[in-house]
Structures are given as structure tokens and as C-alpha cells.
Amino acid sequence: MSDASAPAQPTAAEVRAAAEAVKAALDRHLEAVERRTGEDDPAVYAAFNALAAAAEAYDERLYDRYDEVTPFEIPGADDSMPPYTGPDEPNALSVLIRRDYAVVEPQRLLAQAQRIADLDRDENADDTSAAVVGASVHAALGVLFGEFEPDEIASRHKEFGLEEGDSTLWVAAADELPEPGEWLSTPFDQADPERVVCRFDVSSVFDEEDLDDLHSA
Q1: How large is the C-alpha radius of gyration of the chain?
Q2: 60: closest CA among 51, 70, 46, 49?
Q3: How many angstroms separate the CA atoms of 68 and 63, rounded?
Q4: Other beta carbons less than 10 A from residue 117's beta carbon
């Protein structure tokens, strides 16, 4: 008696179609590389992810049908992000950024923030609401991030007594631009991993993995 709940084995035609999808993804990846506009070209990153997804799908079908596997592995092709299911031609996009910092030199942070507050007070002599940082790291962070753009803080973090942790940037596709103020109360709740076109991660763990690879070579 057959098990009706067991997944259907892919047909030979489905395996062949998956192989053709890998070939097409290879061509698109090469084209993206040949036309790349910089080291972090999002088109190359998207083509890489598409190639990884196509190769994984082919590998699964090949194994299910013939009990065989491919002899290659694409680095970074893991289950950290689901396959992209967003529109082929997005009308809008959202850029989500997270950067972590440790406050390793509080006194440096306090001094820099107070210097900024004092300059603002000098430039606005009639403004009695100018910040006084004192010994409050909380107030210092408010002054710092109120004065500088996040990218400038990222490039100058050591000046402010901060140490970088992990960071990530997601570019997510959207059907249309949200209405003004629509998501301000919950800015990250609508982040859909299946609509992420590309992402860029920075972490010291990647450096450690590279060292492990060198030691094991």
C-alpha cells in the first residue's frame, strides 16, 4: 500500500528543467559580473543569490530522482534568507540598516558630545535649551546621533569611543511607496525576508571563518 502523504518524486523532465534553470542563472550571473559597477554591485549580488537558489533546487531534484548530488557548492548559499518572491520590477524599495556598537570609551563619548553641545550653544546664543551632557551616556548618544548622519558615525566611530559590532543592510522590494507616516510607529515590523532583493552583512565572524579555513588548509 503506497504512502499517499509521501512527497511526489520529481520527474525526469523536472530535473532537466532545474538543470536548464542553473544554466540560465549562470549566464545571468556572468552578465552581471561583466557589467558590474563596483565592488558591491547589487545586480551581481542578486544574480549570485539567484544562481545559488537554482543550484540548490537542481541538487535537491537530482538527489530525489536519481540519488545523486552535484560536485560543486556555492559559498554562502544557506538558509539564512528564503527565496525571493517579490515583484520582478519593483515600483519602490525600502533600505533597512542595523549597526551595532559597544561603548568602549565612555569618557571620550561624553567629551565629544559635550563639545558638540557647546558649539551649538555658541552658535545659538539665544537658545536656552542647548544640551548639557554631563555624565549621561544616554544624553551623549542623543547629541551624537542628532548631529551626525549614521554613515559618518560609522566611519568615525573610534573618535566617539565606540567599537563596531555586526551590521547588516537589506534592500527590500515594495509594490508602492507607503503613505507618509504610515510605518513610523513600527518601522521594522513589515520587513519581509522574501522581498529582500539583496543584503550586505559585516561581522567579525566572517574573518574568523577565513582564519579557520586557512588553518585547516
Answers
A1: 25
A2: 70
A3: 5
A4: 22
Element at 168 (helix H, strand E): strand 162-174
- CB-CB contact of 55 with 62 (8 Å): no
| Partners of 169 in beta bridges | 97, 200
Distances (CA, A) of 67 to 18, 45, 51, 74: 15, 31, 22, 20
DSSP state letters, 174-191 = ESSPPPTTSSTTSTTTT-
What is the rounded CA–CA span in Å between residue 68 and residue 61? Answer: 9
Per-residue pLDDT for 162 more than 60?
yes
Question: CB–CB of 143/131 below 8 Å?
Answer: yes
In angstroms, the Cα distances linking 147 to 1, 15, 36, 115, 119 are 72, 57, 35, 11, 11
- Residue 26 grid cell: 549562470
In this prediction, residue 210 has a pLDDT band, given cuts at 50, 70 and 90, of low
**Whole-prediction pTM value?**
0.56
Q: Please tell me the distance from the alpha carbon of residue 163 to that of residue 145, in angstroms, as a whole number.
A: 15
Mean pLDDT comparison of 34-38, 87-91, 93-97, 103-107, highest-scoring range? 103-107
Could you tell me the sign of the dihedral formed by the alpha carbons of 108, 111, 117, 123, in that order? negative
pLDDT band at 213 (very low <50, low <70, confident <90, very high): low
